[in-house]
Amino acid sequence: MKRIAIDMDDVIADAAGRFIEYAQLRLGKTIAPVDLHNRTWAEVAGVQPEIVRAWLFEEGFFRGMKVIADSQEVIKKLSEKYEIFIVSAATEFPNSLKEKLEWLNEHFPFISWTHTVFCGHKYMIQTDYLIDDHEKNLIRFPGKPILFTAGHNMHLDQYTRVNNWKEAEKMFLS
Amino acid sequence: MKRIAIDMDDVIADAAGRFIEYAQLRLGKTIAPVDLHNRTWAEVAGVQPEIVRAWLFEEGFFRGMKVIADSQEVIKKLSEKYEIFIVSAATEFPNSLKEKLEWLNEHFPFISWTHTVFCGHKYMIQTDYLIDDHEKNLIRFPGKPILFTAGHNMHLDQYTRVNNWKEAEKMFLS
Q: pLDDT band at B68, cuts 50/70/90?
């Protein structure tokens, strides 16, 4: 059975949407998803990077993320043909770890803790595919890297790209 | 640079010693390390497995573990010649995750979050070596498995074994 590693933030968990909520709540700034294209969160919010970065260390930031459209149904289908690992670069954010486990248990109950990986780098993960929104994770990945479209990666053109989970379903199941 | 994955519990963190402390404190039972040879914690404590297992889900259980002798100095030396990853099967225990990060920051400050991995299975970790006390982790590991002696694994004879960190130093650095 081939293995697929799947990232969390901005791939199955709507991190950008959570940033938009926080920007509204904390800074009173209304941001649209399209505003995030090829710009950092701090640039879009018009604040110092430390302000936005501090949100990532707060309790509740990760736990409250919405689920990315179609990810549940498609990954459930994928899990019948592939061995699925959720691989999240989470060890930078100590509060995120338990929240991410709880979030997965709630939204992806068919993913076991045995197949959940919290790490820093991902280049030592031995799977056939990695679906991720960050070039830093894809660039050294030894298997086949798949770029999942997010506002911040619109400029990248050297990776196989899926724009959403329906496209991923087509790629892996047809 | 070759990569070594190193387990935490009973390899760098004294899990057995922590169990002995809890058995004294909670059950009033005095247990010696030698009592643990080839027996489960529950057998040694003479209680139902659920009693002992519940301790692993308690706050503080992992955070309070002592450091295994010589592990700090030897892993520091190893880290000059090898790329070291700490790889702990921790996602089964939600409270352990933050505690394990804090524990590593305190006792192994030279190990970055980039090289810390919390997972379930370990067979998808691509390193040249895995130093671990559990056969379940070593048996499917694709690199070279190294068994680190612990009370519960004394009966295993099909793995290259190191009894302590001085022996690991000799194996990897001489």
A: very high
B6-31 per-position pLDDT tens digit: 999 999 999 999 999 999 999 999 99
Counted residue by residue, chain A has a size of 174
pLDDT of residue A154: 93
Domains of chain A: 3-14+66-173 (3.40.50.1000), 15-56 (no CATH)
A7 catalytic residue (yes or no): yes
What distances in angstroms separate CA B7 from CA A127, B76, B102, B157, B161, one per listed residue?
Answer: 21, 15, 16, 19, 14
**Shortest CA gap A103–chain B (Å):** 12
Inter-chain CB proximity A124 and B125 less than 8 Å: yes
pLDDT of residue A38: 87
Chain B CB contacts of A112 below 8 Å: 120
Residue pair A15/A100 in contact (Cβ under 8 Å)? The answer is no
Report yes or no: B70 and B165 within 8 Å, Cβ to Cβ: yes
Listed as ranges, residues in chain A with pLDDT below 50 are none
State the pLDDT at residue B149.
97
Q: Determine the residue type at A49.
A: P
Q: CA of A102, closest CA in chain B: separation in Å?
A: 8
Inter-chain residue contact B112 with A102, CB threshold 8 Å: no
ipTM of the complex: 0.95
At B15, list the tokens.
């899990």
Give which of B120, B121, B163, B116 is closest to B10, Cα–Cα. Answer: B163
Report the distance separating Cα B98 and Cα B16, nearest Å.
20
Tell me the residue type at A63.
R
- At residue B67, the pLDDT reads 98
Q: Which residues of B touch A127 (CB under 8 A)?
A: 124
pLDDT for position B38:
87
Angle at which helix B15-27 crosses helix B49-56, to 10 degrees, equals 120
Contacting B residues, span 27-86, partner chain A, CB-CB under 8 Å: 85
Chain B residue closest to A125 (CA)?
B125
CA of residue A65 relative to chain centroid, distance: 11
Q: Do A94 and B101 touch (CB under 8 A)?
A: yes
